[in-house]
């Protein structure tokens, strides 16, 4: 560990990371994908930490985001060349997805580590403890965490599934669902993404309104309901999915108007309601 | 004493200003050489101390604005008073530092203690007489340039016309007139329409020492752009673009981060400029854009420690660099309270330490060496025992003589050439 001075108490996670980064620097035998994964972990952790700050450092955030992009690009190119995944074969258990969808890998990783350990200790020989710990924090957990964080950061690219997923039978039907969810989230993100730099936009502009366009603040408030003249029924309170999806369809015939514009408005409102339903169903 | 955040000599070198994290400015003055005390050749003593910036709270955004002084730049002296610009993250202030060593006595309407005299008592007119008093140095803010920067100011630079100056933040550079505080011109704006597309920020900017229309700014991608203000009002298109092609053999995950330029300084001659990135200092000829003419390794032994330095955030430390008066040598800081000096002519370099233990007054500094591997010799320090909390980010070189000022956290060291 670098630096002189009194030894201070680190949290478990910090100690792991410090140990891992020393391993990165000193070990020459660490395989490249693992090194890359470690760096990616560190980058994402830092970005998460910065997001929680009131005023994150723009310079650092840009540098780290560029590093993440670069690694992501590299990984995507590799996965394009090699459809069979290269990462060690740890089957994605249901554990790997719980708690990983939301942001905050720094919180989830310790629990993820212990869960994965119990799952994969028989799959992988424990010869090299450092390599093993790196493996544990890599792979499926990271890829799902990465995709969720990058969505937050609004780096969403194409619709390809996350890398390093072992295509098992379970996963096949999941892909289309993931795809559609991603599309929905795209739209939601486009509306008012709270990405790293987006927060800079609002929090850093001069308080004297020289830079700030008032509209930017209210961008994510959906005012389409108030804009339309068409009398659209208000959103129903959440009900069992089967009932809820039928409700809007039932109420629309009550607005008997044959004009094309009304039908158009019907359709957009329908899709919006679908969208809202999917979120309710999905959560 | 607070952590020193900037160090700057004035044009004559008689005054040395330091700014600290608490918003204070301390100015040191060089003592006149006197025959009676030949050994106290030009010592620097405290001349003036004042609070330049206070912490502010932006109520609209619920943000605290730090009072830390990011940069101080002196104005050329035009009369008996001294002027300097000091800036924190958001506001630049012009300070006047003036001496008062005489006092007027014998006012007609006031008593000596300032009370108004009874008009009926005044029977004769007298002319007030100036009497000497103890030297008093006063600092007063003459201009406040505020509300022009959305992002954090990282540089200010006084133009050679002595009338204007620039201030740069992460995404924009503004041009000011020293007399006008309610207006500034935006001359560079690299903010993208969509903030998610942001990949590069401005890290430093400086005016050319002789051509008042030319300035440069450096970026987090290791590039420098030279702009000519005569070409257009908004200098979004550069006149020259300096970038060294990447060495593919030394590519790593951290290549971009360590290429980010933390400081850019023109040489006194105006022919060269120097840039500091994390591991090296590069000297560029303004006439050659595709690569630097000289590259000096500051602490190459850190290249194999980049992951650890990234983990503890040291990789983001912003080191400054400076030229000596004749442009024959350059200086920059490192870790463990080490600083490095490079002689451009002889290509010799030296590592010195700024610490109380290793420097007694008038003692000669001993060169230090970092052991990179293998057997450590006596007096060498191994890379793993370097103290990364003791970093020298700010150094300054006297404009004419071999006197240097080195800021080591909250201590200021001033070193001079050996006297024969």
Automatic annotation (TrEMBL), chain A:
<protein>
    <submittedName>
        <fullName>SRTD2 protein</fullName>
    </submittedName>
</protein>
<dbReference type="InterPro" id="IPR052262">
    <property type="entry name" value="E2F-SERTA_domain_protein"/>
</dbReference>
<dbReference type="Pfam" id="PF06031">
    <property type="entry name" value="SERTA"/>
</dbReference>
<feature type="domain" description="SERTA">
    <location>
        <begin position="32"/>
        <end position="79"/>
    </location>
</feature>
<dbReference type="GO" id="GO:0005634">
    <property type="term" value="C:nucleus"/>
</dbReference>
<dbReference type="InterPro" id="IPR009263">
    <property type="entry name" value="SERTA_dom"/>
</dbReference>
Automatic annotation (TrEMBL), chain B:
<keyword id="KW-0853">WD repeat</keyword>
<dbReference type="InterPro" id="IPR000009">
    <property type="entry name" value="PP2A_PR55"/>
</dbReference>
<dbReference type="InterPro" id="IPR001680">
    <property type="entry name" value="WD40_rpt"/>
</dbReference>
<comment type="similarity">
    <text>Belongs to the phosphatase 2A regulatory subunit B family.</text>
</comment>
<dbReference type="InterPro" id="IPR036322">
    <property type="entry name" value="WD40_repeat_dom_sf"/>
</dbReference>
<protein>
    <recommendedName>
        <fullName>Serine/threonine-protein phosphatase 2A 55 kDa regulatory subunit B</fullName>
    </recommendedName>
</protein>
<dbReference type="GO" id="GO:0000159">
    <property type="term" value="C:protein phosphatase type 2A complex"/>
</dbReference>
<keyword id="KW-0677">Repeat</keyword>
<dbReference type="InterPro" id="IPR015943">
    <property type="entry name" value="WD40/YVTN_repeat-like_dom_sf"/>
</dbReference>
<dbReference type="GO" id="GO:0019888">
    <property type="term" value="F:protein phosphatase regulator activity"/>
</dbReference>
<dbReference type="InterPro" id="IPR018067">
    <property type="entry name" value="PP2A_PR55_CS"/>
</dbReference>
